[in-house]
Fold:
Amino acid sequence: MQNYDVIIIGGGVIGSAVARELCRYRLKVGVLEKESDVCTQTSGRNTGMLHAGFLYKPGTLKAACAVEGNLEFDQVARELDVPFKRTGKLIVGFTEEHRQRLLQMIERGKINGVPGMELIGRKRMDEIDPSAGGNFAIYCPTSGILDPFLYTVALAENAVKNGAKYHLYTKVTGHEVLPDGMHLLHTAGKGDFSARWVVNSAGLQSAEISAMLGIPGYVIQPIKGEYFVLDKKAGVFARIPVYPAPTEKNTFDTHATPTVDGNVLVGPNSFPVEDGEDYSVSQSGMDGLQESGARMFAHMKRDYYIRTFAGARPKRIDPLTGEIQDFLIERRDDVPGVINLVGIESPGITSALPIARRAVALLREKEALTPNPDFDPVHRGIRRFHDQPADVQAALIRENPDYGEIVCRCETVTRAEILQAIHNPLGVCTVNGIKVRTRASMGRCQGGYCETRITAMIREELGKKVEEVCLGNGSSYMFTGYVKGGDRT
Ligand SMILES: Cc1cc2nc3c(=O)[nH]c(=O)nc-3n(C[C@H](O)[C@H](O)[C@H](O)COP(=O)(O)OP(=O)(O)OC[C@H]3O[C@@H](n4cnc5c(N)ncnc54)[C@H](O)[C@@H]3O)c2cc1C
Structure:
């Protein structure tokens, strides 16, 4: 049995932010994650917007955490080396009714503490982004875009650097409280773990884990969102995220968002599903996105489609009325040693560190924590060869010839970067794990050229058999055997 001071169930952006914040103290921290990596679930299936915080009801945790997370993000991005651009955002309207809703939104933004929002006309919109649809818009200067994969990975790797231990492929299946008050967690095939404290950051499964830990009654309704990813050729036309005026229920329909790497995301739509982890997309959903996306983004053309994907927002709903609830961040005296984070839907990426600080503050109410003098908040990611000026690229190749070999031609990712990714501090060894860390296979050909080469490199570097290398989760094997004899090592 492995023993920790604190065990975190779920290593997405929330669990990883909590792990990092706990490492500021002298604590033995363990993270149990059922999947092959930290951003395979909701944290890797979203828009990557750093929300400003004007959408949420004043006084809620969603409003407070979004504004706090937004305003501190320049420093966070520098500290953790996360690709981030404070682009601003347009929320566009076509009708008088839209104008009224946008004016209400500016008022709500002011109450929540969002600086600089203003209503602008078409002329100013054209100066900001001529590809944006609409007759008028709110311009919100504090909104931004970030790489949600690299943010989650950076939080997790920084936690590991500061002493946390991640257990991947480790699904928590049961829980007991021992006579001395310690929590005992059973896992599927990875043995038992014990800890004084358990943090529930299990995302779509957070209500289930909450009940397992002794706090029943919460309900999570997964709300699916589907997306198109557009080629960088479309990205040159997208300067700024463009959202439609909010619906009557104060949610946003399809929007067009540039990514930090120069692609465009069109989506998400929004509909309830039973299985939040069914990430398939539907033809009808994609047809709808084509139509609604074209209203937001003038260059929404089929020639630009390179991929689709989906995610599901873990919305906590009132079991009786179905009404959507605020984030839940709780510690209860009747269930000692549990910090419960339930219903962390959007703006969860923006709010990850503010949520984590609140979770740690709840723990500190019960236990005096000793600061960790060795805590180092700085993380350095893998340096992107593609983004370097020519003289730096030449120097890199002179220093290390592996920078001279391009493995992913669409995104110009070198062998040197792939090797660094294969030897990542979390021990992730899937092809998708390399993809999110380097962008290899994220380009126009979607891995047609480089996936087999990456598979071979994982096999060589980690001493695996080719049949053992997976694309992502579970049994998604890249190869299942040989058609004609061949080398079986
Ligand atoms: C379509 C969409 C768009 C969004 N857009 C934005 C946006 O633009 N900006 C923004 O701020 N937010 C956005 N969000 C919200 C944001 O993505 C989430 O709030 C955030 O990623 C939640 O992080 P998490 O760590 O709680 O969840 P997850 O990333 O799902 O992590 C939970 C982890 O728990 C693990 N787990 C579950 N059960 C167990 C178990 N029994 N044992 C071990 N591990 C377990 C899971 O495998 C998972 O990895 C969006 C969400 C969606 C779906």
